[in-house]
Design a protein that fits this description.
375 residues; alpha/beta; 8-stranded mixed beta sheet; 5-stranded mixed beta sheet; 20% helix
Length: 375
């Protein structure tokens, strides 16, 4: 399952025809005048949320035991900060007072951001003049609604990152269909695929709306995309059609991620690059329950078994967890014991780029990551 949220309907509207904005920065405001109730302080990294939590029994422990690994642990590089200033149709404009102001194509969007503890840099009227503002419940798992101060906007609009077209969408859980901090992982993966002198197989677990899968396939990889949400798979197929990429070799699998990789292990399937982007909590299509701290060791253990002998990487991103990156770093090193290579771990960061998209400002931490590479 991917993060996440009940998806809105499928109607499309909007476009990239809006004229460039010419606002100029002013004096920093004490607080944006629209006075959104800021997100509650949290030690969690990032703002990714899942479906509303409901009481449920804990998932049964996987029948497959962890494999006892031997040999030396992989070398390590820590801490590693992977930073993005934005790409394509996205950049982060400003942050502060528990909020962030972002540019997605023609639209400026205000959303809650618990990590933004400082005051914003830009004047209040620039925030107030945003095209869309997420309001309502700003708790991590809370639903809300979008307010459109300038004019009513359609539910979807086209965007592009790393040469891939996809649809942005205003959802009830504040997300818009892409997590741009992942650009650094996707650019790394794209480079690996393009540089390889052989066909690569990429597995994208918890694949959400398919942007990473499309990036990999466009670069020349054979991709398997797994997500437990039928709506997310449908959105991903919309993105594929938008970019006229229907002929690219992508398998769209709607299934619980753990069940899928266990079956792939039994089949002897192998992948050269595995991306895994699990939520803190989620549900599979048949009510399977995912708890990150309970199930992550097993998931990584199985992922190691389905890495090809000449694998190029295993990438884990973790959102909204109360942990240090060292937690997932040491887990990854134990998982890859005896495999050689290097485990590099740290944080994904987006740096403010200002109104023009080119003026570096404060850095916003979004998530933790750990990545094994063969050298």
């Amino acid at each position: 399952m991917k993060h996440r949220e009940n998806r809105p309907g499928q109607k499309a509207a909007g476009g990239l025809g809006a004229k460039p904005r010419r606002d100029m920065p002013g004096k920093p405001p004490a607080k944006p005048a629209h006075a959104l109730r800021p997100a509650k302080p949290s030690r969690d990294h990032g703002e990714r949320v899942t479906e509303p939590r409901v009481a449920a029994p804990a998932a049964a422990a996987p029948e497959r035991p962890l494999i006892a690994r031997t040999g030396e642990r992989s070398a390590e590089r820590v801490p590693v900060i992977l930073e993005s200033l934005g790409a394509g149709d996205f950049h982060l404009i400003d942050t502060g007072n528990g909020l962030k102001l972002e540019q997605y194509g023609p639209y400026r969007i205000v959303r809650p951001e618990a990590q933004a503890l400082w005051p914003p840099s830009l004047a209040a009227h620039l925030w107030d003049n945003a095209d869309a503002i997420f309001t309502g419940d700003t708790d991590e798992d809370g639903m809300g609604r979008w307010r459109f101060p300038r004019e009513a906007l359609g539910e979807t609009w086209p965007l592009q990152l790393l040469g891939v077209d996809f649809l942005g969408r205003f959802t009830a859980f504040r997300h818009v269909g892409v997590f741009p901090e992942q650009i650094v992982h996707w650019a790394w993966m794209k480079g690996q695929v393009e540089a390889a002198k052989r066909p690569l197989k990429v597995l994208n677990l918890f694949g959400y709306t398919g942007v990473a899968s499309l990036v990999a396939a466009a670069a020349g990889a054979e991709v398997t995309h797994v997500d437990a949400s039928k709506k997310a798979i449908g959105w991903a197929r919309e993105n594929q059609a938008l970019g006229r990429m229907e002929k690219l070799p992508i398998r769209w699998i709607c299934e619980d991620a753990m069940k899928f990789i266990l079956r792939e292990e039994r089949r002897g399937s192998k992948y050269d690059i595995i991306l895994t982007d699990p939520p803190k909590f989620g549900r599979g299509p048949n009510g399977e329950v995912w708890h990150l701290f309970e199930h992550l060791p097993s998931m990584l253990d199985i992922c190691r078994e389905i890495l090809s002998p000449k694998a190029l990487g295993l990438v884990l991103t973790a959102y909204s967890i109360r942990a240090s990156f060292y937690s997932i770093h040491e887990l990854m090193r134990e998982t890859m014991r005896g495999a050689g290579g290097v485990v590099e771990s740290g944080e994904l960061v987006i740096r403010e780029a200002g109104l023009d998209g080119r003026t570096p400002g404060k850095a916003l931490s979004t998530s933790l990551f750990s990545r094994w590479v063969p050298k």
